[in-house]
Amino acid sequence: MSLEHWEAFFRNGPITPRSTQHGGNYDLEIHKAWSDFFGNCQSGTRILDIATGNGAVAGIANETAWNLGRVFIIHACDLAQIQPMRDVADAAVRFAGIQFHPGIAVERLPFPDASFEVVSGQYALEYTDVPAALHELRRILKPDGAAMFILHHAGSALIMNAPPGSYYVALRHRNHLGIMTAAAVFLSAVPLAINFSTLPVAPGG
To answer: Which of 63, 65, 129, 149 has the fewest CB neighbours in a 10 Å radius?
Structure first.
């Protein structure tokens, strides 16, 4: 969808693109993955959620803080002109304390160097200029900070229907640091084997 389509979608108030049982937010494995990640944060942790949309992941961070009796300092940005505090029905409670930043590109963040301990993003990096975005996220993340990104599965309809072209390929496993090809790889309908052990790679989140 175009940026204008996303903005129209967010104005209608949904938190995620699909119906869920967890108060309209992500549930099951996705919710647990984010809850576990944010559960490692202590009170006062500064969190930046990128491509936040109507605040799905930022909301899980807030929920995790409440459940643990902690307070996180949460900022959430999106390239779209989002207004979750206006458009989401229970925003005053769900997003209490979160500062949203509309119209912000991940490649050009308006934050000082080393200003966040944690960065999060779901279905975010694949919509950016990945090398530029990672460079910028590294700039605003503290040296001992943590980042986690959930990406579209390689076999998802979004990826399978993507036009042939050059793409960065990222791999994340629960028992290994994420990695990504350092250069774009041409992908098409023709199957391609990618050996990360022989290609130049970059940190992939």
So the answer is: 129
Distance CA 104, CA 106 (A): 6
Task: List the one residue out of 156, 159, 141, 157 whose CA is nearest residue 203.
Answer: 141
* Segments of the chain assigned E as strands: 46-50, 73-78, 99-102, 116-122, 141-150, 165-167, 170-173, 176-181, 185-187, 201-203
**CA atoms of 34 and 121, how far apart (whole Å):** 10
pLDDT digits (tens, 9 = 90+) for 53-102: 999 999 999 999 999 999 999 999 999 999 999 999 889 999 999 999 99
201 Cβ contact list (under 8 Å, min separation 6): 179, 180, 181, 182
In this structure, are strands 141-150 and 176-181 parallel, antiparallel, or unpaired? unpaired
Matching residue, tokens 């006062």: 44
Point out which residues pair with 186 in neighbouring strands. 166
Residue 60 has phi, psi (to 5 degrees) of -65, -40
Give the tens place of pLDDT for each residue, 173-205. Answer: 555 556 677 777 776 666 666 666 665 655 544
Predicted TM-score (pTM) of this structure: 0.74
Q: How many other β-carbons are positioned within 10 Å of the β-carbon of residue 115? A: 15
According to DSSP, residue 14 is labeled -
